[in-house]
Predict the 3D structure of the following.
Amino acid sequence: MLDPSSSEEESDEIVEEESAQEVLGSAASGARLSPSRISEGSGGAGGLQHSSRTGGGRPSSPSPSMVSEKEKEELERLQKEEEERKKRLQLYVFVMRCIAYPFNAKQPTDMARRQQKISKQQLQTVKDRFQAFLNGETQIVADEAFMNAVQSYYEVFLKSDRVARMVQSGGCSANDSREVFKKHIEKRVRSLPEIDGLSKETVLSSWMAKFDAIYRGEEDPRKQQARMTASAASELILSKEQLYEMFQNILGIKKFEHQLLYNACQLDNPDEQAAQIRRELDGRLQMADQIARERKFPKFVSKEMENMYIEELKSSVNLLMANLESMPVSKGGEFKLQKLKRSHNASIIDMGEESENQLSKSDVVLSFSLEVVIMEVQGLKSLAPNRIVYCTMEVEGGEKLQTDQAEASKPTWGTQGDFSTTHALPAVKVKLFTESTGVLALEDKELGRVILHPTPNSPKQSEWHKMTVSKNCPDQDLKIKLAVRMDKPQNMKHSGYLWAIGKNVWKRWKKRFFVLVQVSQYTFAMCSYREKKAEPQELLQLDGYTVDYTDPQPGLEGGRAFFNAVKEGDTVIFASDDEQDRILWVQAMYRATGQSHKPVPPTQVQKLNAKGGTVPQLDAPISQFSGLKDADRAQKHGMDEFISSNPCNFDHASLFEMVQRLTLDHRLNDSYSCLGWFSPGQVFVLDEYCARNGVRGCHRHLCYLRDLLERAENGAMIDPTLLHYSFAFCASHVHGNRPDGIGTVTVEEKERFEEIKERLRVLLENQITHFRYCFPFGRPEGALKATLSLLERVLMKDIVTPVPQEEVKTVIRKCLEQAALVNYSRLSEYAKIEENQKDAENVGRLITPAKKLEDTIRLAELVIEVLQQNEEHHAEGKEAFAWWSDLMVEHAETFLSLFAVDMDAALEVQPPDTWDSFPLFQLLNDFLRTDYNLCNGKFHKHLQDLFAPLVVRYVDLMESSIAQSIHRGFERESWEPVKSLTSNLPNVNLPNVNLPKVPNLPVNIPLGIPQMPTFSAPSWMAAIYDADNGSGTSEDLFWKLDALQTFIRDLHWPEEEFGKHLEQRLKLMASDMIESCVKRTRIAFEVKLQKTSRSTDFRVPQSICTMFNVMVDAKAQSTKLCSMEMGQEHQYHSKIDELIEETVKEMITLLVAKFVTILEGVLAKLSRYDEGTLFSSFLSFTVKAASKYVDVPKPGMDVADAYVTFVRHSQDVLRDKVNEEMYIERLFDQWYNSSMNVICTWLTDRMDLQLHIYQLKTLIRMVKKTYRDFRLQGVLDSTLNSKTYETIRNRLTVEEATASVSEGGGLQGISMKDSDEEDEEDD
């Protein structure tokens, strides 16, 4: 016989050999160092010796001691590598068997789907895409609001070092970044104004769609969707091939090694796998008995647990047996991982009590299907060619089938008949008929027949069979070509003819037809059958028997190859006709008995002895006869020891610890953000391994916890919910609550649990201390809440007594106090790094107070940002504990108290009486006053105490400076309107209204007040106020008062009492200042009028209008600057209003008096024409005489025209320059009434005199024009048509009539009567 490792076999597998040569060489070089490997298979041994010879060259180093030391280290390293490789291969064998034939676990379908995680490269790509969008390099259209939101998201989230750390930890998924953006924009969108027809939800969805487009970049969304779908499917359910491949990667197994092990272990043979499981379970029962006998128990926390431990071992094995028994007896190809049945049957198989499980003949039921195909017939010579022939076929006891008819010249059919039978040796009858031609013939003539007895082992191809014919048939040499296929049922494991003799059954040495039947997973029977019988004639239940090869027995004739089945008190001897059949029978019965002894064929024993090997006596399946080649190949490559090893002899606790650790490493390095959760396929394999190999649940979870803790301590992101599950299981087990039905607790489990509990407590406290960095932006979702809940569970002394809330609160308070220090320290470092980057050129210079203040304001902005993020992203803790919010408030106060130290230090070095620190107060106060918890808190009150003296000092100085500016300003006031002063200045943008600048104070302040920069009204002031014709001093005053009040109001002083005090003081100050301004303006008004002309040449100066406008502004500003909400303070406002009203009245009175004085001067000129005076007579004579020779102008018209021009000009100036319509109306009313009164008085004084013609004409013109001009200016008719006016009108009408009679038309068209011509002439 050829050696399996000879060139004949290697030529068949040359491709495999070449692919594995390099790996085998390295394995051999490592194996040569292990003494236990030297004597293994011949092929391996030869390779090892060769490798030893080639690798042992003389060293080139001159120092033998050094070389020997290096060689020793190298040997140790290689030996460790080889041991590790062996361990992984052995582990892979156990894992393969779990995958090939699971009977306890299935892949879970209810696990949360994990998201694809973001790598560093992907994060950088996303950053670049968002930067490109912000730079306008994409085609995505967006408005300013969305741009601002993306800019903020980019700066705050994407560029955050905490996000980079989360990516590095493997806990950042694309979904996390999307959810953060969604949360980021929700507040922004909610704060946008409402737009008709556009809901906020529409805006949100639109923004999210744009975000997805930016995030995705130029990728095709359909390809991405397809990729996501495929990855999601692989995350749910994996096939056996995918599971094999996964664990090859996990354990570092080569593909060719997998193929060798797969074939040698016969993983595609479910019968072999079921038999392997039965042997393993039997071995575990024997081990439990051995432990009980030798009292070699693990160390338990209680002595009473030792007996319980044995019961638990047996109970677990019995449960596995029940699970295996409930498995369907099916082919491997039909076995589905997802269609497993768990048995909860109370009747557990007990292998020791055989009497309860004896089989009867009726329990063994076989069902066969037969296919009979009739091809053709030969030898029909006596029949005429056109005679009709046909065949019939039947199985004994069944129905009869008939073929189609054919002519005798061509008797071919190819007809198939399908039958089913319960007979193990059925009789198949086939008959050939020809149709009878006789008229009286009742049935057709039978030409021949054949009776077959097929078995499942019979040939399946068609064969010629000689038919039995009757003696008088002329065709004695009839042959028929048939194919009979008899399929083997699933519960029939082997069949064939054997010789047998036994003590209780088969008592005579005789050849019988035997069938090995599997009744259930644990019950097999050897049955002998007779022909045409459904039930076995005799049967032997194989429970407890051991099968093995044996030598030929003397005295038993018949059969060549012997084997036997032995049991206490019984021996059954079998013999087959050839060696191959014996090997197949022994292999099938070996699987059925579940024995630990492995029968080795004498041919292999001879082969091993010839090569100096030993016969392995370990528990392992022998190969099928057709698979000996695979077994030999596996042996040659050194795999035989892993296949042949007895699983019961291994420490599966340590092996499982190893495979779970390697699986976790593989899981954390895959493309999913798993947070420590295994995939469904991995959970399935680990579950099956634990159940099949008896790994204790507590040990499993303790190892899992330890591995997860190691990863978490090294920066990986682990889901606290996962830690909670495993910890709760271990805690429940250690405290005797039996989560998995195991009541025994070992000392090692308890000690490891206490150690892990302490490590877990430290980890959780550290995570809470670093919550901003362990759970950045509240991701993973719900992790902080789960961490707090887990900490509470860890602090429990047992699983029943809840930990006092005060104790939990104390621990978390301590963590958050430390967190405040950590967060502020990192924030300070970040701020310093940021400043150093900006001011790299200022390194080494002294830090000025202004620079220090600027840095403090920047730090305050960062502090506020941190507190806002804490509130936004880390408030979920209150779902775990109601008092979490209180502790977070304490944390915020502690955090702010650390900032307060730096803030106080920065403010102390500021020069006295500088106001640059007010923006710092505004920034902090605007944040604190809107926070319900921090408003008027410890830090807030400290801030108020710090800035209250500064505010008071500032208001004092502003009051002094404003008072002095009024005094000096009015002394130098030109009363030119501000508009004319600033109209030539360039336009200036308004200042930033978010942080209004503090108004500065002018110089030349009285002694004791420090010098400060000057202040003047800015050029944009006219754009702020509607009144733009006031004086420079008044506008300066009002701007300062308004700026001061706005500034103090924008401080939003949180303490109500002090805030009201400031408001009241500023209102009173404004009232006093405006009062002073009004009084000074009144004095200046009177002085100005006194200096003006009293004739009709008088023109209302701009300064007079400006003074009126100052009054207008003062009234408008007093409403805003002097009024308070409190009713009792309204007196200050009303007081200044009354003063302004009185002053305006006085100013109007003075101005009207001025106008009256001018009118009186005109009337004085007319008085010279009074009747009876010398001047009147002289004028009349002179005019009459001169008119005879020259054209004399109308006397008196120049006076009237001058007055009318003066009135009109004054009206136009006042109307144009004074901004208050009410004042103009009052002035015009008073002016008109006063003018009419003066004229009326003047006429009354001349009641007895007739008016001179010139007086009459002048007065008529003046009165009519005055009436009409004031009517055009809007004076009411009731005022115009007063009694005084009627008196004047009547008098002048009478005088006009008198003059027309006496003078004969001397009025020259001037009349009191209204006429259009006159109007046109006047205009």
About this structure: The longest strand covers residues 368-378. The radius of gyration is 58 Å.
